[in-house]
Amino acid sequence: MNGDCSVSKFTFTFVFMLTLLCITEKSGKEVMSKGSSGMEVILASLENSRDVQTTLNILYILSELLTVGRGRRMGVFVSKGGTGILFQILTSASKELPPSEELMLQLHSLLAKVGPKDRKFGVKARLSGALNVTISLIKQNLQNAKLLLPCLQVLRVYSANSVNAISLGKNGVVELMFKIIAPYSKKNTSLLKVALDALGALLKSKTNARRAVDGSHVPALLALYLDWHRNDARHRHMLIRKGLLVCLRNITNIKLGRKAFIEADGMRILYNTSTECLPVRTLDPLINTSSLIMRKCFPKNRLPVPTIKSAFHYQLPHVLPVGPVAQLYSQPPGVDDVVDDSDDNEETEAETDTDNEEDEKAHRTLNDDIETDLNKLHPTKSPGRPFEELRVYERFFLELSEDFQGYNFEGSKGASSTPSSGSLSSSSSSARSTRPIIVPTAQALSPKHMATPDGLKGVKQEGSPVSATRHIQSPLLLGDIATRRVGGGGSDCGSEGAEDEGGEGAVLEVPDTALLLPLHDPDLYVEMVKGTRSVPQYAEVAYPDYFGHVAPTFKEPHLERVYGVQRSKIFQDIERLIHPNDILDKVVYDLDIPRVVPFTFNSQFESVLNTQWSIQYEYDLVLNSDINSNHYHQWFYLEVSGMRVGTTYRFNIINCEKSNSQFNYGMQVLMYSVQEAISGRPRWVRTGTDICYYKNHFARSSIAAGGQKGKSYFTLTFSTTFSHKDDVCYFAYHYPYTYSTLKMHLAKLEALRTPHIYLRQDVLCETLGGNICPLLTITAMPESNSNDHICQFRNRPLIFLSARVHPGETNASWVMKGTLEFLMGTSPLAASLREAYIFKIVPMLNPDGVINGNHRCSLSGEDLNRQWQNPNPELHPTIYHTKSLLQYLAHIQRAPLVFCDYHGHSRKKNVFMYGCSVKETVWQSNISATSSDLHEDLGYRTLPKILSQIAPAFSMASCSFVVERSKEATARVVVWREIGVQRSYTMESTLCGCDQGKYKGLQIGTRELEEMGAQFCVALLRLKRLTGLRNHQHLLDLESDIIGTHSPTTYVMEEDEPSFLEAIDYSAESDNEDAEPENEHASNECFHLSLPEFNHHEL
Q1: Where are the alpha helices (DSSP H) in 837-990?
Q2: Between the CA of residue 1042 and those of 4, 943, 946, 1038, what are the distances in Å?
Q3: 918 pLDDT tier (thresholds 50, 70, 90)
Q4: Are 191 and 239 spatial neighbours (Cβ–Cβ below 8 Å)?
Q5: Which helix (H) or strand (E) is 693 found in, with range?
Q6: Does the annotation count 509 as an active-site position?
Q7: Where is the composition biased (Acidic residues) (predicted)?
Q8: Which of 802, 1099, 773 is closest to 968 using CA atoms?
Q9: What secondary structure does DSSP assign to 161-216, as a single string?
Q10: Per-residue pLDDT tens digits for 169-206
């Protein structure tokens, strides 16, 4: 009797507490407040309770407490061991026959609330035996929706643990869930939604996904989705429809699931239902998930070319035993691009606990590439080669021993040369081929569409048209080109007389760009082309390279991304799969087999690209691999002609390799119109609409990928229209800058030299392809040959600059052009800079790659910026000899004050620098280091900080000074580590534009790139003023003041752009266009592009 009385009092007490909590929120706060023992009392009472009603009362109280202020209160509950107590009570109560339904309901309801907040929830459930209890309850209460709902909610949390998901699958829970989900009904929709969530979580396990396939549940899921789609006309149950799609998405993560999806006609079902959803913006989550599933299940195909190896081959003097080239040479014929089973990556699941996805994400975000070996992080000068071997490089440093005796400084004021200068212009063309050089497809320009200066009168043209013209004689331009006869009759442009077609007196009136481009000379350019050796033996000159480029005066803002453009490409791609007979699939252009079609391509000139074509108004282009490789595709430069005015053409480059691109963030391709050039506007302009960059359904095998997992390709797609009839247009990834252009610019700069400038051009070495690699020395002439002046001349600090090691990074050459023009300029700042430093410059480290249109490599098939640790003198001559120059300087104690390698970056905006810092590398890793390990001069930050203050395109926030293992063989790291140059940098210039400063929202052009090169020079002058201070402590204080050491630069990850507004995983999407062809059958022609002298890549 006393026992019953005690239980009644206990029950009454908790009923009173529950009532109090319901009446006032203050009581709940007091129970959960810091320092209060209220929660411990409640949990102790719950654990010791032996009465069902008392237990229920306590559970009611906990439910009320945890419902309000869920986050913090849940944390307190979990930290006090509440989850374990609930599981203990659950397993104990399940042993009662029959168990209390109300108790089970309340326990599962509370567990469903607590589970997502307890990181060890899944482990606790499995160890306590709660999994089996819940499964048993679900099986026994399939018709009891009231109890079934909280059980499914808890099951959903259980399944988030990978080990639990596998265990539940073994116990038949996957099959059980398919008994619960049902066709369209207005009843129990909440229960169905939770059941689908739980099933989706279970199917993340590949083992469970295979069970679903084996149980023939893929057709059932598709049927259910179609049923809900048809009946949910008012879209009130979108979450249920989304849950069905999530289940399909997880099943199709495995190869068997994708096969079952295709066999069940899933592509057609999801395509049709998604198309019907398109008009309703709120259904975008369904469309996006359907798109992802369809894209994933789209059959992976090989590229529509016989081989993914380069169309050109260069026989190397020898092949290293290991490396990508050795792998390429060892591949048997015919298997270089076969998609094999290894591409599915269906490895056996590891039964390890992953209770919290956030923990996994946090672990993945740690950069495993950061160097953690402190011995490698501390620069140690390593000569590498004995000085006797390096003494031969003394001849490249004549300025360090020049005494200028016998040089007439007074007479030199009117002279035009210096005694120590050399020239490349003569050697560049000597002993070279004298093959005829022509401008290609000039016949596309007809006389009646040729504009002349007279034809431009009274018409206001945008930009600054070139007013003068020059007459170019045949046979430089071959074919039926637009011509005017010099003298005799003065016929206008519109005349079509037969006498104007061809004839030995024919000339082409073209703009004289020399008025606006002092460093450009078309005739000189052609001479330089004659001395350039290419593997394909290019014999044509592209119009843009011949005419030159005058930067437009108007602004070119980032292109605003159209919502849904990426999705539309996917849907059209899928439509092609569903309706293959609507496609006319034929090749219209190939490097090896040119075709004559109304709309024609050409890629047979220096720095270009190989292509293949697609439909009448839509073309698929395939980029040629770098020579001696089977990959590296991004750069392109090609010519088109025969276009219809006003017609929209779509171009799809279908074998890009980078996983993301600035084309998704406002960048456009570049186009050059010959008609515009002849009309007085010779310039590259940004063009293209509906631009998108995304993963497509083409792939290369694990064999082609060097034994790694097979890789998918990406598509760059854009549309454009043409304004002029009979025009010849060029498209390029970025502003082209050929090797011949460099030689022309160097010759023109030498001609502009004044007697006060010391300029010497040396041939550093000859490349594999037989082209010369220029080395420039620029400084100021000494004031006289007095000892003091000669001493000052010899002891100037050295600055070592290089560029274009990656051929596709043409923007690096434009920045270098700005630097060279500034150094050779007549401004007081330029004169001061020359008096302050001696500049050693290698303006193009990879001439062969540039000439032959490679994207990343040299003729050796290797990335030269990964060869600095141990360059081979035969295979990597430019790197070998450039490093030897630096080693020689280190030996004679004249290491450069600054080393900077100019690059371009395809996935970031702005201009920024990568440098090397022990301290900042340690900050970004988990290694422990002493204060002495972290001691370093902050001088490495001075130059980028100065640039951020004076160069509008430069962003200090984008800079990084972290040393990574994958970059240990790059110029920046090797020069820092082995040569001991503290200020060793890579300067990266965007291909797109800026998102800060003066140029925010604008695409970058050659004017801004050249300005960046000039501002780099100005920054060096400011750096000289700082490093010239004799008081070293004062220097450190000043640098600290400039730098602002309170906020170290954080490590810049590879992807720094936000997600797209359209919530699509672009990496799982396909390539497709939404152009509707005018004819009945869309022709999907494919064309194989090759890149000869241009290409683009980042460090």
Answers
A1: 847-851, 877-891, 918-923, 942-950, 971-974
A2: 80, 10, 8, 6
A3: confident
A4: no
A5: strand 689-700
A6: no
A7: 337-359
A8: 1099
A9: SHHHHHHHHHTTHHHHHHHH--SS-SSSHHHHHHHHHHHHHHTTSHHHHHHHHHTT
A10: 999 999 999 999 989 998 889 999 999 999 999 999 99
**Tokens 């929202």 belong to residue:** 1001
Best CA proximity match to 184, nearest among 247, 146, 235: 235
Rounded to the nearest 10°, the torsion over CA 8, 10, 13, 19 is: -80
| pTM (two decimals) | 0.80
Nearest to residue 916, comparing CAs of 379, 228, 205, 202? 379
- Per DSSP, 659 falls in state S
Given a cut of 90, whether residue 820 has pLDDT beyond it is yes
CA dihedral 600, 605, 611, 612 (to 10 degrees): 40
Of the residues 639, 988, 1039, 1069, which is catalytic?
988
The C-alpha atoms of residue 485 and residue 477 are separated, in whole angstroms, by 15
Distance CA 1012, CA 820 (A): 12
Residues 6+ apart with CB under 8 A from 204: 159, 162, 165, 250, 253
Q: C-alpha angle with apex 841: 835 to 843, nearest 5 degrees?
A: 140
Q: What is the DSSP letter of 979?
A: I
Beta bridge partners of 129: none
Tokens 């991304």 appear where? 561
Q: Nearest-CA neighbor of 565 among 650, 666, 716, 692?
A: 692
Q: Which two tokens stand for residue 363?
A: 């672990």
Burial 828-857 (b: 16+ CB within 10 A, else e): eebeebbbbbbbbbbbbbbbbbbbbbbbbb
**Alpha carbons 962 and 707: distance in angstroms, whole number:** 30
What is the residue-wise DSSP string for 826-855?
-SHHHHHHHHH-EEEEES-S-HHHHHTT-S
621 and 456 Cβ atoms separated by less than 8 Å: no
Residue 465: the pLDDT is 40
Nearest C-alpha neighbor of 798 from the set 977, 950, 959, 979: 979
Give kind and range of the element (H or E) at residue 510. strand 507-511
Phi, psi of 180 (to 5 degrees): -90, -45
Q: Are 576 and 583 in contact (CB under 8 A)?
A: yes
The single residue listed with the structure tokens 């431009």 is 456
Q: What DSSP element (H or E) covers 94?
A: helix 82-94
Alpha carbons 968 and 540: distance in angstroms, whole number: 40
Nearest to 110 by CA among 131, 90, 137, 136: 90
Query: What is the DSSP annotation of 477-498?
Result: S-SS-----SSSS---TT---G
Would you tell me how many other CB atoms lie within 10 Å of the CB of residue 751? 14
CB 1088 within 8 A of CB 305: yes
In sequence order, what are the beta bridge partners of 1087? 589, 621
Per DSSP, the three-state class of 903 is strand
Return all residues near 696 (Cβ < 8 A) that are at least 6 apart. 573, 654, 712, 713, 714, 715, 1069, 1070, 1071
Confidence grade of residue 331 (pLDDT, cut at 50, 70, 90):
low
